[in-house]
Amino acid sequence: MSTSDHPNADVRMRGFVEKVSVEAVRGWLHGELEKLDSVSGEEVSLQESAKRVLAVDVVSEVNVPEFERAMMDGYAVRAIDIKSASLRSPVLLEVVGESFPGQAFQGIVTAGKTVRAMTGSKLPPGTDAVLPVEQTCTGGGEQVLAQQSITPGRNVGSVGEDIRAGEVVLRAGRVLRPQDVGVLSSIGMKHVSVVRRPRVRIVVTGDELLPAGSKPQAARIVDANGPMLAALVERDGGEPVFPGIVPDDPEAILAALKDDADVILVSGGTSVGQEDHVPTLLAEHGELAIHGVAMRPASPVGMGLLDGRLVFLLPGNPVACLCGYDFFAGVAIRSRGCRATDWPYRTVQITLSAEIKSPTGRLDYIRMLLEQGQAKPVPKSGASVLSSTTRADGFVVIPADSEGYQAGTEVELFLYD
What we know:
By secondary structure, the protein is α/β, with parallel strands linked by helices. The chain is 18% helix and 29% strand. Strand 24 and strand 25 (374-377) form a beta hairpin. It is elongated.
């Protein structure tokens, strides 16, 4: 499959000799990913840990809570003191103090005594239950009438009820959610060991490109792929590095390819045109394992290795760039960062309102619109029409062994949201 062994790896103005199937490309990529070591871990503050991948199991060193606490507003009592209490025959107790969250009662509650206790407060020593305030009435002065009996432990949160000391709270590999961060805070963690985000160098080439923020002018267009790829890398847990557009100069491109990163993404200069230097550079200085894939869009996709790092050659046409990223580069970035390699798209089963055709031997990526509970292809959907992906609700993948789907067929729709 490697093109690096060809007598002439310079494919400019020659076209693709053959195109590799998507399945074969995925097989090559999976094999290379298995050979690579995982990126290292790093310590981040608790506040920075959300959405990061946990690098090690977290074992709690403390009980949560560390003390028995009132679970209701009421009175902390000795259950034995009010075992005969009822509405007809209430039991009189002397109120000897109060217990608030963070302000525990100082002393020991003895027979016939009680303490006002607020929800979350520490249970006073000597008591074993909390009688809700609704089940009492004033007895005058510092006295209260218990109007119902209660069992020991009632309305009391026990030590370690939430988390026990020595318990594995969260397992390595988990992508931390907001509630996970809350749990880590509750056990006293200040820093969290997470997987380092893979550093992804984005190399966008093209003398016709203007930087983001510019206005199109004359024969030049504004770069869309750089910002889009940076956002995709962020989505997939990587750290995008995009210092700016690289000129169509072999030396400048090679210097960018050799940047210190875990994954290299190249957009533009990757096909078979006169100014497409990247395939030749990768073949000469590393390994151009794949160039040309049997899919549409993104057929000029290539990939290989340079200095032990994966390099992805993505088309300059924005839709093809997005498609090539999602099928291959995104998988690698998520894998390098110890994340699930599945597509980050929700799927639904939906009926087609119009026929979609595809030649056998080529995988097709079809952008779709949702209308009245059915799906149909987006009109005006060339590989350079990036707005087709913003007008679309999602996409359908037609495998290489299919000629497409008739109207009325139920298909799997990948939703962009």
